[in-house]
Amino acid sequence: MDINDKEAVYGSNFINTFIEEDLEDTSKVVTRFPPEPNGYLHIGHAKSVCLNFGLAKQYGGICNLRFDDTNPAKEDVEFVNSIQEDIKWLGFDWGDRLYFASSYFDKMYEYAVELIKKGLAFVCDMSAEEVKLSRGTLTEPGTESPCRNRSIEENLDLFERMKNGEFADGEKTLRAKIDMASPNINMRDPVIYRIAHATHHATGDKWCIYPMYDYAHPVEDAIEGVTHSICTMEFEDHRPLYDWVVNNIDFPVKPRQIEFAKLNLENTIMGKRYLRNLVETNQVDGWDDPRLITLSGIRRRGYTPESIRNFCAMVGVAKANSIVDLAQLEYCVREDLQPRCPVIMAVLDPVKLIIDNYPEGKTELLEVENHPKNEDMGKRMVPFSRELYIEREDFMEDPPKKFFRLALGKEVRLKGAYFVTCTDVVKDSSGKITEIHCTYDPATKSGLNFTARKVKGTIHWVNCESAVEISVNLYENLVVPDENSDNGFSLNPDSLKTVKAYAEPSIKGTDKMDRFQFMRNGYFIADSKHFTDENMVFNRIVSLKSSFKPNK
């Protein structure tokens, strides 16, 4: 999918309808992607990135990148940098519109003072637990704070003293004065400022009070002239508070909040808190571990930005939350990789195949296409001799009826080479097959005009003498369902399996992040972190087969 298309990235949806109702000149659309810099982005964020930047692109408007850095205890410059890298990797650009909530702290403080002067905010002495208990329930109204009717003068004095650091963390808060009987609990005098004596990654120790997200976010949107604030559905109940803030402060632009369903993938971890714990306890190989669904993880895994954008478009935009099958994402990755990846032969579970009637000491070069469906990719020469490696699963002593690969007395084609017939096997003391012996028919060389007989099976192989040893990482889901766990899942001990494999010599000269299709084994990428010429580490991106069938 071309992100420059008119209906990039999602086509038409209910958000388009709202935008076109709100604006006569839709080129004035301003959206924003507002991540908190407290972790790396994951696949769920990709949907929001594509939607916000895609809507701006569709209408000829602009999309800002803004970091909601209002919680210094969990934020870091590392996350700021990684988020920018991820968005650029997805194919989007915010131009010169890189903003930080922390840049607006002075203005936010001024607006809070404005609310106090209007009698719409007060300083509260209640603890967090007392505030929680006073909120009431869905069926019972809350109880007003004993500080609610403080004078404007006293509130202004206390709020300034909060800013000046005279009080300890949690000793006081600034709360909006709205309605303790509101059916929406979020409107029952919510906290809009708290005390936190913590060093901020951008402002250092200048501030010891920080705005709460529900106050900061609408202020940031309004300052930037955002027309449509696109959020996920968990913010739907917060929309009245969003509107209260923008309507009670004198802003020239009143942004509109619109909610959509977030992306949920089956059997996948996307909670930042859990992801961060996995990283900090070294249970995974960093935020970019290929088993994680972080954008840096799937980039290292070998997923392409085009496949992610296509996946987001396929999932679409809706109001109802749903869980998407991981196979749908893998389908999009597979569809994008199929036409672009050269195909080479690599054997992941090798067993030796010996062609008894092939001349000893002879090696010949056979011509094989680099892609079966793309002649423009050309061809390569692959060495062939008497001793080869094949996949262990490509041989069975007692095969079922429809097994078309190698078996005793059966004939198959070696890819790009000859027909071979199995005559014998050699086993070790445990009964494991160590050698498969065959004979070949020289008249069946690939490329010759040979029509005497047909075979149904073709298997790949690697020449033993010239084989290049590689290390291959095979992945399964990082977590598995576990009804006995508090989270409903537990780590999968089989999520990573590393095997020694053999590849044809054309793999020499590979660079980090080069992608291939290993014939009949799937799509693989040279690992961006651990790959070297001496230690050739490849990650399996996806297998060749898919359980997902798209609607036609």
Describe the structure.
The chain is α/β, with parallel strands linked by helices and 552 residues long. The protein folds into four domains: 14-102 and 215-330, HUPs (Rossmann fold); 105-210, Glutamyl-tRNA Synthetase, Domain 3 (Glutamyl-tRNA Synthetase, domain 3); 348-465, Ribosomal Protein L25, Chain P; 469-542, Ribosomal Protein L25, Chain P, CATH 2.40.240. Helix content is 24%, strand content 25%. The protein contains twelve helices and 31 strands. The strands form nine sheets. Strands 12-29-30-31-25-28-13 form a seven-stranded mixed beta sheet. A seven-stranded mixed beta sheet has the order 23-20-21-22-14-17-24, with no helix packed on it. Strands 4-5-6-7 form a four-stranded antiparallel beta sheet. The radius of gyration is 31 Å and the shape is elongated. The model is unreliable at 1-8 (pLDDT under 50).
Order of strands across the biggest sheet? Answer: 12-29-30-31-25-28-13
Give the biggest sheet.
7 strands, mixed
The CATH H-level superfamily of the largest domain is: HUPs
Q: What number of structural domains do the residues give?
A: 4
Query: What is the CATH class of the largest domain?
Result: Alpha Beta
CATH architecture of the largest domain: 3-Layer(aba) Sandwich
Structural class of the secondary elements? alpha/beta
Number of helices: 12
Task: Work out the strand percent.
Answer: 25-35%
Q: Looking at CATH, which topology of the largest domain would you report?
A: Rossmann fold
Mean pLDDT equals: 94
Coarse shape: elongated
- Count of strand segments: 31
